[in-house]
Amino acid sequence: MSLEISAVTPAQAILTVQKPRAVEQAVQAAAEAPDRKESAPDIEEMLAKLTDISATFNRRLSFRLNEKLGQVVVKVIDNATDKVIREIPPAEVQHVHERIREVMGILFDERA
Description:
Blueprint: H1 10-18, H2 20-31, H3 40-56, E1 59-66, E2 71-78, E3 84-88, H4 91-111
Antiparallel strand pairs: 1-2, 2-3
């Protein structure tokens, strides 16, 4: 699944903001597609376009990699207050995912 940012109209951008699940799915699909290699300039260009779109709504996007999970985490931040409005996936879900991996590691280590 790919999303061509240059083809996004303001109306589509509003729908995307109103439906964060669609954003989550797009981020997850991009993270799960290891066969698709993007060059650094392409990724930087896409991030610049996303930044421009988010600025329209007085929001800032922050991308980081959760190294324990190997997942991209996106934070939506309000420019006026610098408060995190939303984190995708939520911190609680990330923590539960980390704990599940730890328990699975302990379980399989004990059986071996």
